[in-house]
C-alpha cells in the first residue's frame, strides 16, 4: 500500500482551504449544536479532527467537552432496543474516545463510569444477539464487535474483548447458522424465508465483509473469517453484469439481491453508501486477507469504470453530502488511490473534490444543511471532514468507524 501526501498533489489547495473555511463558519455558527446524540457526536469528531489538522488546543478542548456531554446524555437515556443507527453512533464514539486518550488533560472530566455503563450494556446486547443468531441480529452484533475493536483496550475491563472474541468464534464455528449471509439460498432444497441482501458499504454485505477483514487482522486466530469473506466475495461477483452506457446500465453490481430467486435490483447510485466504488474498495482490501491476485485486477476494472460516471444521470449525485453525495465519492477515490497508487484515482479524487466545492457554493447560502449540520453521514460535518482530509498533511483516520 502506498501512502502519498495527496494534498501536496492537489493543484488548487487554496480553494480547498477556502471551501473548508466556509463550511467551518457554518458549523461554528450552528444554533442547534449539542441538541441530540447525533449532533454531539458529529461536532466532537469534527472538532477533534480540526485539532489534528491545525493543532489548536481550543478545538481539542471543545471536542473533549462535547464528548463528555454525549456520554452523560447516553447514560441518562434508557434504551430497550439498540438500533443500527445508534450502534453506528457509539462506534464512532469508541474511536473518538480512544483518540482523545492520546492527549490526556488534567482538567478533563473523568468519563470512566459512563463508559463502563456503555461497555456493559453493549456486552449484554452482544450476548443476546449471539444467542439469537438470526440474520436480523448480524448487522447489530458486528457493529458491537467494531465498537469494542475500536475502544482503547487500556480503558476496557480485562474480560470484555476476549468475551466478544469468544462470541464471534462460536458464530464462526457455526457457518450454516441463520446468522450468516444467505449465500445460495435459492438453490437449496428447502429455501429459507425470503430475504433481501443489500450489497453496499453503509448497510450491506460489502461493509460487513470489510469489518470481518479488520477483525481477522486484529486476531489471526479467527481463521473461519477467511471462508466467510471468500464466500461473500464470490457471492458479490456472481451478481455482476455487463455495463452498457448507451442503455443507461452504468453499475456493474446491484444495489441489493432479494426474493427466493435472488433477483438483482440495479440502480445508478454512485456514493459512499452504495454502488460500485464500495465493491472496488472491498476487492482491494480482501486481497490483503485472501492473497488472490485476481482480486486487485477485478478491483481496478470496477474502480476505473466508475471514473467514466461523472453526471447526475450516471451517479445520482445531487449534493455535497458524505453518504450519498460528492464528498463521499471524493473520499472513496482517496481510499482507492491509497490502496493502489493508481494515478487515475487521484484524478477522480480531485474531480469530485471540485464537485463538492461546487455544490457547497449553492448549499451554504440556501441553508441546505439547516438543522442537521452535525450529522456525520448526512450533515455538514461529514463534508467538513472530507475537506480536512484533503488539506491535511497526514491521514486523520476519522473514517475508521465508517469502514
UniProtKB/TrEMBL annotation:
GO terms for biological process: peptide modification. Coiled coil: none annotated. InterPro entries: LANC-like. SMART domains: LANC_like. This is Lanthionine synthetase. It comes from Hymenobacter aquaticus.
Amino acid at each position: 500500500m502506498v501512502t502519498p501526501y495527496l494534498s501536496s498533489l492537489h493543484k488548487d489547495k487554496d480553494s480547498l482551504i477556502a471551501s473548508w473555511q466556509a463550511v467551518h463558519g457554518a458549523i461554528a455558527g450552528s444554533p442547534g449544536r449539542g441538541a441530540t446524540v447525533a449532533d454531539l457526536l458529529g461536532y466532537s469528531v469534527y472538532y477533534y479532527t480540526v485539532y489534528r489538522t491545525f493543532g489548536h488546543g481550543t478545538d481539542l478542548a471543545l471536542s473533549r467537552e462535547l464528548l463528555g456531554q454525549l456520554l452523560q446524555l447516553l447514560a441518562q437515556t434508557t434504551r430497550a432496543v439498540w438500533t443500527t443507527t445508534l450502534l453506528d453512533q457509539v462506534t464512532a464514539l469508541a474511536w473518538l474516545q480512544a483518540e482523545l486518550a492520546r492527549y490526556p488533560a488534567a482538567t478533563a472530566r473523568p468519563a470512566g463510569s459512563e463508559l463502563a455503563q456503555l461497555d456493559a450494556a453493549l456486552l449484554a446486547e452482544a450476548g443476546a444477539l449471539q444467542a439469537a443468531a438470526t440474520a436480523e441480529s448480524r448487522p447489530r452484533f458486528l457493529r458491537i464487535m467494531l465498537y469494542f475493536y475500536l475502544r482503547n483496550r487500556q480503558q476496557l475491563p480485562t474480560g470484555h474483548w476476549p468475551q466478544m472474541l469468544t462470541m464471534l468464534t462460536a458464530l464462526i464455528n457455526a457457518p450454516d447458522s441463520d446468522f450468516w449471509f444467505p449465500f445460495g439460498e435459492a438453490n437449496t432444497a428447502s429455501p429459507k424465508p425470503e430475504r433481501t441482501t443489500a450489497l453496499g458499504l453503509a448497510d450491506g454485505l460489502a461493509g460487513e465483509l470489510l469489518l470481518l477483514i479488520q477483525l481477522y487482522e486484529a486476531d489471526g486466530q479467527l481463521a473461519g473469517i477467511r471462508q466467510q469473506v471468500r464466500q461473500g466475495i464470490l457471492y458479490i461477483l456472481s451478481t455482476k453484469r455487463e455495463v452498457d452506457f448507451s442503455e443507461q446500465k452504468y453499475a456493474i453490481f446491484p444495489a441489493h439481491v432479494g426474493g427466493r430467486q435472488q433477483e438483482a435490483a440495479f440502480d445508478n447510485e454512485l456514493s459512499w453508501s452504495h454502488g460500485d466504488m464500495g465493491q472496488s474498495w472491498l476487492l482491494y482490501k480482501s486481497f490483503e486477507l485472501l492473497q488472490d491476485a485476481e482480486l486487485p485486477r477485478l478491483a481496478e476494472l470496477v474502480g476505473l469504470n466508475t471514473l467514466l460516471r461523472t453526471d447526475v444521470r450516471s451517479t445520482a449525485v445531487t449534493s455535497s453530502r458524505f453518504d450519498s453525495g460528492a464528498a463521499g465519492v471524493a473520499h472513496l477515490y482517496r481510499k482507492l488511490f491509497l490502496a493502489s497508487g493508481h494515478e487515475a484515482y487521484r484524478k477522480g479524487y480531485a474531480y469530485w473534490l471540485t464537485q463538492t466545492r461546487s455544490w457547497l457554493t449553492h448549499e451554504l447560502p440556501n441553508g441546505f444543511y439547516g438543522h442537521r449540520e452535525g450529522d456525520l453521514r448526512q450533515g455538514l460535518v461529514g463534508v467538513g471532514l472530507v475537506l480536512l482530509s484533503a488539506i491535511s498533511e497526514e491521514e486523520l483516520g476519522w473514517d475508521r468507524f465508517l469502514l
